[in-house]
Amino acid sequence: MSAQSAISRGAYRQAFLMCCQIIEQQADFADAWFLKSVVAAAQGGIYPAVQWARKASLLDAGNAEYLAHQAQYLSMLKRHSEATVIADESGACKNVGAIQLDILAGVYSKAGDHKKALFALKKAVSMQKKNPFLYFNLAANYQILGNFPQAKQNYEQVINLQPDFYRAYWALSGFPNTDFDAHLLTRLLHLLSGPRLGPKDELMLCHAVAREYERRGDAVRAFSYLRRGKLKQSRKLAYNFESDREIFTRLANKVTEQSLTRVRPSSHTQAPIFVVGMPGTGITLMEGILEGHSQVTSLGEVQNFGAAVKRAANSKADVVLDASVIDAFERTDFDEVGSRYLSSLKAYQSPGGSVRFVNKLSLNFFYIGHILTALPEAKIICMRRNASDTCRSSYKQLFASKSADYNYAFNLEDTAEYYLQFDQLIRHWRKLFGGRIMEVAYEELVDTPESVSWDVMKYCGLPWEDDCLKGYNSQRAVSCNGPAKVSKAIFKTTVDSLL
Question: Which of 165, 223, 325, 336 has CB atoms 3.0–4.6 Å from 313's, for a disulfide?
Answer without folding.
Answer: 325
